[in-house]
C-alpha cells in the first residue's frame, strides 16, 4: 500500500514539474518572440535616424553683389572702346578746320574705320565712308552724290615714281587738257604731293598723289560749277594707317 502511495506522489510531482516546465517554455517563447520583434523594429528606426541625421541642410540662397568698379577700371574700359592705330588711341570725335567760300569753317569729324584698307579717319557729318572695291574706298557727300573722294593706300612695295606716272596717265585719260597743278600750299599731307587737274563737260577732277609717311592716291570728283574740295582734303589729313 505504501508503494502505491509513493508512486502516486511521484506521479503527481512529475505532473506538476512538467506543467511548470511547459509554462516556463511558453513564457520563454513569448519573451524571445517579443525580443525578436523589438530587434526587428529597432534597425528600421536606426536607419531612419541615420538618414535624417546625414542629410545635408539646405543652404540659404544668397544674393550676389556686384562690387563697384574702380575709377581705373572704368578708364580702362573706356580706352578699349576707342579704336587705335599702331597702339595709339584716337578720340571718337575731332574738330576739323578748313576754308569754305574764303572763310574758315570748323566742323566735327567722327572717327571711322576702314576694314578694306586698314586705316582710320575722321569723317565730317553729312559724308559717308564706304568700300568701293578691294583697295579702294569712297567718301561721299550725302547732299551731292556727284561729290566724292576715292582713297587708295599705296602698297609699300610700289615705287612712287611709277604711281606718279599712273596719276598723270589717268588725268590725261579723263581730259586731253589735263594739267599738273602747282598752286597749292605744300604743307601737311600735301608736302611734296603731285597734283593733276582734269575737267569734263560736267565734272572737275583733282588727282593727288600723297608722298608722306602714308602714301596714297586721292581722286576728288565734284561738279564743274561747285569745285569745293576743301572738306575732302580736311578729312584726308586725318587718315592714319593701322
TrEMBL record:
This is Lipoprotein. It comes from Bacillus songklensis. Residues 22-99 are annotated as: Disordered. Keywords: Signal. PROSITE patterns: PROKAR_LIPOPROTEIN. Residues 37-92 have a biased composition (Basic and acidic residues). It comes from the Bacteria. Residues 22-36 have a biased composition (Polar residues). Residues 1-22 form the signal peptide. The keyword Signal applies.
Amino acid at each position: 500500500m505504501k508503494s502505491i502511495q509513493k508512486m502516486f506522489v511521484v506521479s503527481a510531482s512529475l505532473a506538476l514539474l512538467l506543467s511548470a516546465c511547459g509554462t516556463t517554455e511558453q513564457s520563454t517563447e513569448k519573451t524571445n518572440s517579443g525580443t525578436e520583434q523589438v530587434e526587428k523594429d529597432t534597425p528600421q528606426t536606426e536607419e531612419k535616424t541615420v538618414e535624417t541625421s546625414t542629410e545635408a541642410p539646405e543652404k540659404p540662397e544668397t544674393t550676389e553683389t556686384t562690387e563697384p568698379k574702380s575709377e581705373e577700371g572704368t578708364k580702362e574700359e573706356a580706352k578699349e572702346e576707342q579704336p587705335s592705330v599702331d597702339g595709339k588711341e584716337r578720340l571718337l570725335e575731332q574738330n576739323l578746320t578748313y576754308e569754305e567760300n574764303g572763310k574758315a569753317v570748323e566742323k566735327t569729324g567722327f572717327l571711322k574705320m576702314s576694314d578694306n584698307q586698314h586705316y582710320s579717319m575722321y569723317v565730317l557729318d553729312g559724308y559717308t565712308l564706304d568700300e568701293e572695291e578691294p583697295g579702294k574706298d569712297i567718301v561721299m557727300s550725302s547732299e551731292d552724290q556727284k561729290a566724292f573722294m576715292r582713297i587708295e593706300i599705296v602698297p609699300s612695295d610700289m615705287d612712287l615714281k611709277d604711281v606718279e606716272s599712273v596719276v598723270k596717265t589717268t588725268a590725261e585719260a579723263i581730259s586731253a587738257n589735263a594739267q599738273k597743278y602747282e598752286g597749292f600750299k605744300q604743307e601737311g599731307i600735301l608736302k611734296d604731293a603731285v597734283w593733276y587737274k582734269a575737267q569734263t563737260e560736267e565734272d572737275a577732277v583733282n588727282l593727288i598723289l600723297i608722298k608722306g609717311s602714308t602714301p596714297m592716291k586721292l581722286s576728288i570728283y565734284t561738279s564743274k560749277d561747285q569745285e569745293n574740295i576743301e572738306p575732302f582734303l580736311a578729312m584726308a589729313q586725318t587718315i592714319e594707317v593701322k
